[in-house]
Amino acid sequence: MVWQYSNNKATAAQLLAHLQQCDSAFIAALEQRTDLAAYADKLMCYAERFEAWANGCVVGVVALYCNDTQTRQAYISHVSTLLAWQGQGMAKALLNHACAHAQAVGMTHVQLEVATDNHAALRLYQQQGFANDEQTTNTRQHLRLAL
Question: How far, in Å, CA of 90 to CA of 80, rounded?
Answer without folding.
Answer: 10
